[in-house]
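Think of the structure tokens as a kind of shorthand, similar to the way a musician reads notation: each symbol stands for something richer, in this case the local conformation of the backbone. In the example below we present two proteins back to back. Begin with the first one, reading the sequence and then the tokens, and try to describe in your own words what changes along the chain.
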Amino acid sequence: MTIKELLVWFGILYFLLLIVGAVVIQAIGLKSSSGVNVAALLAAVMINCSSYGKKNGFYLDKDEKTKVVLGMIAIDMLLQLVFTLLTLPGAGKPVSLAIILGVLAFVGALHGIAIYVFVGMVEKQLEKSGYK
């Protein structure tokens, strides 16, 4: 598996998990989906990074980790922006672009930290399982 494939599969899985999460949230009548959003993100990170390590028999080196973390953050921010723009018409009130960008930057920073930590966590789990 290549870095590009890892990122493509991450984007696909994350998107699907976000959709499934949104459907479940709507079905049970909850208003907030931030917990589901984070769970989808972390599951997509862990599943894809673990698959990369297992398929290749080794994990990411330092430069590859940087590329993967930055790539995952970019994919995450793109999906966050798309879903934000799709839900704005239902908000009922106009929202300023500055507020949208500020919220996305804040969410991006939090998600970026989570992605960084979980990419490293997968490495430790793989090492315990005998992968290098």
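Once you have a description of the first chain, move to the second and do the same.
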Amino acid sequence: MADQENDELQKIKDRIPEAWGKSISCGPGWDQIIIDLDRALAELDPDYVIHQVKEKFGGLRFYYDSERAREDPELARKMSRLVDEAEQKAERTCADTGNPGVLMVGRGHWYRTLDPVTAGAQFDVCRPVTIVLSDNMSVERLRNMVLTQTANLIHYATVLERLHSAYRSESGM
């Protein structure tokens, strides 16, 4: 399975022009999200080009170009929707393990989406953030951002409950 995944990631890197640097700069926990996104985009436009795939502020950033989408607004919307969905999925997925994750902040204000159980002491779960609205933000995107923050809080509460239960059973409480 790992070899097949590496082959698929190499195919994705091959879509990146030399001038952009043929790399994917995010943790292995998002590999499957990126592979699935590439497959879906390639079904819509087999000739689309990737400019960058990276982790930024704890989220997946996937920059691409499609000549066909520039000429077809409906295709552009479909491709953009797929990228949005993948980026949103990454917001709930640990970049290192692929397990459920939450936005965390490390020393030096380094933001990553990680599993709080395995993240280590150098990362803390972020407090809920203020969502800054922009003129071009869709209601759907705003809704998904709010739902993601809510899911993060629920996940964090679940993790704390598990830790508390483990502590009680170990201490005989």
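Compare your description with these statements about the second chain. Residues 2-171 form one domain.
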